[in-house]
Specification:
The chain is mainly alpha-helical. It has one domain (about 20-100): Up-down Bundle (Methane Monooxygenase Hydroxylase, Chain G, domain 1). It contains 3 helices and no strands. α1 (about 20-55) packs antiparallel against α2 (about 55-75) and α2 runs antiparallel to α3 (about 80-100). The protein is elongated.
Length: about 100
């Protein structure tokens, strides 16, 4: 791998102390779990967005009801801040209520 002139390539240093090695393992495990949680949350939010854009109020309400536990769970697990979750829920609910009822 060639580097640009005048720049030194940084070496990756691995953990050497047993506690640092363990912390690296834990971080990798937690990152995988949190990534999965974030992905699940985003998927549920996308379903709501798609229903809102399509103008389907019933489908949007159904998706919103299904997403609420995921959003609250993400707060409990530390993926989202509680105010962020409250703001998202409030805005989504307002957008759903603004849709024409069919």
């Amino acid at each position: 791998m060639a580097t640009a002139p005048g720049t030194a390539a940084k070496k990756k240093r691995s953990a050497r102390h047993p506690s640092a090695v363990k912390r690296t393992r834990r971080n990798a495990k937690r990152t995988a779990i949190n990534t999965s949680r974030e992905s699940r949350l985003k998927s549920s939010l996308v379903k709501i967005e798609q229903a809102i854009v399509a103008g389907n109020r019933a489908k949007a309400q159904e998706a919103f009801k299904a997403a609420q536990p995921d959003i609250h769970r993400s707060v409990a697990k530390g993926v989202l801040h509680k105010n962020t979750a409250a703001r998202q829920l409030s805005r989504l609910n307002a957008r759903i209520k603004a849709l024409p009822s069919a």
